[in-house]
């Protein structure tokens, strides 16, 4: 869960950088939330807790399933952060 926590923080930071430079949030569910860094951090913190709890529950039902769930979410946010960094590097600078 530590890696996911780092990725979520990187998502918040890179999203804020993009917004400062005129970018937009493409996720319609998050577009109102990302404008407020505290609210953005709160939502991502709740997501981290939810994934942790779901992974624990999955693991108790089927050995290895919690790790699979965690890896899927880590993979997703790796792509999100990578995309944000790509936009920052290649479009802003």
Largest sheet: none
Number of strands: 0
Q: What count of helical segments does DSSP give?
A: 3
Q: Please, how many domains?
A: 1
Compute the separation of the termini in Å: 32 Å
Rg to the nearest angstrom? 15 Å
**Percent helix:** over 70%
- Average pLDDT value? 95
Question: Quick summary of this structure?
Answer:
The protein has 93 residues and is mainly alpha-helical.
Layout: helices, strands, pairs:
Layout: H1 2-20, H2 37-61, H3 65-92
Helix pairs in contact: 1-2, 1-3, 2-3
Structure description:
This protein is mainly α and 93 residues long. The chain has one domain. Helix content is 77%, strand content 0%. The chain has 3 helices and no strands. The protein has helices spanning 2-20, 37-61, 65-92. Helix 1 runs antiparallel to helix 2 (37-61) and helix 2 runs antiparallel to helix 3 (65-92). The longest helix is centred in the last third of the chain and has 28 residues, at 65-92. The radius of gyration is 15 Å and the shape is elongated. The model has no long low-confidence stretch (mean pLDDT 95).
Short descriptors:
77% helix, mainly alpha, 3 helices, single chain, elongated, 93 residues
């Amino acid at each position: 869960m530590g890696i996911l926590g780092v990725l979520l923080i990187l998502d918040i930071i890179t999203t804020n950088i993009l917004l400062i430079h005129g970018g937009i949030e493409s996720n319609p569910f998050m577009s109102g939330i990302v404008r407020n860094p505290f609210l953005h951090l709160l939502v991502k913190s709740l997501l981290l807790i939810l994934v942790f709890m779901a992974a624990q529950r999955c693991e108790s039902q089927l050995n290895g399933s919690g790790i699979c769930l965690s890896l899927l979410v880590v993979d997703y946010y790796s792509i999100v952060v990578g995309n944000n960094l790509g936009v920052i590097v290649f479009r802003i600078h």
